[in-house]
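The instructor's notes for this session suggest beginning with a concrete chain rather than abstract definitions. Hand out the sequence below and ask the class to guess, before any prediction is shown, which regions might be ordered.
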Amino acid sequence: MKKIVPLLTIFMFAIPSVNAEVNFSVKENISFDGKIATVKTSKKYRSVEACQQLCESRNSCTAFVLNTNAGSCTILKSVTDEDVKEGVTSGSKS
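After discussion, reveal the predicted structure:
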């Protein structure tokens, strides 16, 4: 067992850390259209930060749309278009 512990220690430091920080380009009063992955209507996702974090947690997410009027956070797999829409904030991974 004494020989295994030093080897595990070496492997722990040999693995590079992954930078999980994702940059988003956020646009107010813009609504993205595209292929929808999921829509959340829970109060938990009714802020830009929460909706963006949900997008960050999904590998397939390329953008999010927070519609404060409808109380929804939409996660998009792809973006095909964007429109001007009051009360909506959209963000795309950059």
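Then share the key points. The mean pLDDT is 85. The first strand starts at residue 24 and ends at 33.
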